Request: fold
Amino acid sequence: MDPAPRLYELVLENGRSASPFVWRVRYALAHKGLAFESVPLGLTDIPTVLGGRFRTVPILEHGTTAMAESWDIVQYLDRAFPQRPLFSGPAELQMVRLVDTWLLLEVGRRLLPLYLLDVHDAARPEDREYFRRSREAYFGGTSLEALAAGRAAQLPAVRAALEPLRLQLAQAPFLGGTAPNFADYVVLGLFQWIGSVCTLPPLAGDDAVLRGWLERGFALYDGIGQDNRLRPLFE
Ligand SMILES: N[C@@H](CCC(=O)N[C@@H](CS)C(=O)NCC(=O)O)C(=O)O
Reply:
């Protein structure tokens, strides 16, 4: 029998796993009740493992199989471990992919520049130079400081972009309905990332719907997302 899957994660200086893409896989493993071995990496470690085959985390290794890309990983998990499926079928998978695309384009892209400096400052010291260089290059040479400058003024647009979530979560405790599904895990992963680094809370103090859902989501699976290293998400 194959050993437990091994999950290569990205960790901050404080040891906390922070990647939103890793977090969705952590939730998926917990949903299926699967134990796993964690391999904590810094950003600059990724090319040094598994023969440099992968450029991003999460990476899942299971027996002789290894893969990156969170969507490939979760579909593999459903094939290799059919118990407690993550998707009831191809239609649900496609709908959750749409949620993921919406989240990335409408929310992630707005949040990313505002919090890159916080990620830099929370990263392992040996990863910071690479992080700054790669992210500033991505933003056309703009410094992380310039990207974060005046960021409080950008938060109303981020909060407005989250309105579809509020409308949906006012009707049911989870995006999956009465129980969480992978759509919840995708969005919870984003907030695990932000909450791991943010020095400015992204959400308004009176956002009761998102507060309730985040509390429920972080409490899942024996408190998978609860951690006293998390920073306040609500002002
Ligand atoms: N599409 C990938 C995205 C993964 C990704 O972007 N991971 C980031 C961490 S959040 C990473 O490993 N970056 C490596 C680097 O920047 O060198 C997935 O879904 O797994």
Residues 10, 19, 21, 43, 46, 56-58, 68-71, 134 surround glutathione (CB under 6 Å). The two ends are 49 Å apart (CA to CA). The mean pLDDT is 97. The chain has nine helices and four strands.
